[in-house]
Design a protein that fits this description.
The protein is mainly β. The chain has two helices and nine strands; from the N terminus they run E-E-E-E-E-E-E-H-E-E-H.
Length: about 130
């Protein structure tokens, strides 16, 4: 007889520690389902409830930089957005050389530039 499985929930807290607004969206919906986007102003955070050990994929965007991120957490963690965007970016939407694993269960799979949905422009940032 199989042993009963017990799952538990963990919190993944994304904190916008940058000077720009940022968005978080499930990667499979990126650019399509705009009602499923969370906008974080500088200093704000959002806690996402995840099943421990399950893999979740997100697209985080700040200005024209997009970080494709995988999260597999076994405990509550906090992730600052500046960590995700600190890697180099490629000019095309092709993957960077290799994914960057952060020590907390979050992996940056790719950082790239997306100008299609850039809602921020330089003149608006000066207001």
């Amino acid at each position: 007889m199989p042993a009963p499985t017990q799952s538990y929930e963990v919190l993944l807290d994304f904190t916008n520690d940058t000077h720009d607004c940022a968005t978080i969206q499930l990667l499979r919906d990126y650019g399509r389902n705009t009602s499923a986007v969370v906008l974080l102003h500088p200093g704000e955070s959002v806690a996402l409830v995840l099943d421990a050990g399950s893999v979740y994929k997100y697209a985080l965007k700040s200005r024209s930089k997009v970080a494709n991120v995988s999260a597999r957490c076994w405990r509550d963690i906090r992730c600052d957005l500046s960590q995700l965007f600190s890697g180099g970016t490629s000019r095309s939407p092709s993957p960077c050389a290799s994914p960057v694993s952060l020590s907390n269960g979050v992996t940056v799979d790719r950082v790239w530039r997306d100008h299609r949905f850039n809602v921020w422009n330089d003149s608006a940032s000066n207001l």
